[in-house]
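Ticket #4471: structure output looks truncated?

Reporter: J.K.
Steps to reproduce: submitted the chain below (475 residues) through the standard prediction queue, then opened the result file.
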Amino acid sequence: EELKTAILKIARKAGARSPEDLFRLPVDRVFTIKGMGTVVTGTIWSGSIELDDTVTILPVNRSVRVKGIQVHSEDKNRASAGSRVAMALSGISREEIERGSTALGTDDWFPSMMVDVFVTYLSRNTRPLESRTRIRFHLATQEVMGRVVLLEKKRLAEGDSGYAQIRLEKPVVTRRGDHFVVRSYSPVTTIGGGIILVPFAPKHLAADRRGLEFLETVRSGKTHEIIESVVREAGYRGYPGRRLPVDTGVGPGITGTTLEGLMRRGVILDYKGKLFHRAIAEEMRGKVLSGLETYHRENPLQRGVKREELRYRIQGVFSGDLLDGVLARLMEEGVVEVAEGEVKLASHRIVLRDSMGEMAETLLTLLSREPLSPPDLGKLSAAMGLGKGKVLELLSALQKIGRVVKVEESIWIVAEGMEMAGHRVEEYLRKNGKGSASELREFLNVSRKYAIPILEHLDRMGVTYRKGDYRYLKG
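Returned output as attached by the reporter:
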């Protein structure tokens, strides 16, 4: 009678389970029935299931169709949390499922070999629990061998509780808030139990203060605090928002509404479906601006840096979606500009100072002597007594500030000369309607070596277009 009273008291406190939660059925039996195929039985822990729904069986990761549902031997079209059910599954054999498998309604669950927990060591034990003790881990219908690694101390005294990581020998399916039982390896006796905090945990060498604060928030925090913490913990990699119901232990409706509120307040940002905490985005913003400042300082003659190189300069592992999102925000603010695949600070200008400025002026003088028939790269290099690489660097810088135009690999024309050529070609075509390459060459009074590159450049710029042997004004 005392046991019944205790069970009823707990049941009243538990409240109703939402049918809109994630469907989850730990399998306790599996068998075959002629005409029905593979059948699994168990108690639905959360959510609901309907006839012809698709479920995923973990850890084998097989998607199958539910072709039959029975509750207490009666055929049903639907069953909800708390129901004891038998489900006939299509497309999977008896040998692929075992006691301890889990049937799930979405793909948002992942089997894990490590879980972070809050564990209580029973007071009736006769000796402390040492870190790395081998144990038997029981959750739902799963029983797996593993080791308990204490995160705050080397041992747990009888009756004490603490944070730990359980490292398992086979993967298990868990959810934040799940209760588990710990039994000793030998002799097999119950020595404690606890609650799942992090269902898919990274390996911890030891928990630092920040790590313990995170676990404390996940254990005792409100839903919005837990969501903020798990997203913050994901760091630069980003967090897949669809996993929130598993990692928070709260249904999709509540997590969705709570997440929307956090995003409205700017606490959490969504970049291409991945969630990032604003603190992480601010850190990345600082890295981007610092990287651009360094690049401009080291490469004053370059307009900007390629995205790939910027990513390389920002050391560490991070999501490309985070970088793209931060760059987009900086562009909206007018702090950064992106053109032709190059990223630059909006304030950056190519300025040719001191000796570089003097060399640039010499180069412009050489190009301006015969603006439509300038010396090619080789002659410029010889005339200035500089290597071709240095001359190219100067020409590239002058091109980026609009002083010269590259019309062919080794031919560069001053901007004023190119503008003059455009006006003259436009004048000729307005008067004559069309012009051949030879006619336009004669009108420009240049050799074919320069005429063809100039005319092709005007085609690319949309001033003219070629049809057959003639060119016409565009538009």
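Triage note (M.O.): checked the attachment and the full token line is present. The longest strand covers residues 161-172.
Status: closed, working as intended.
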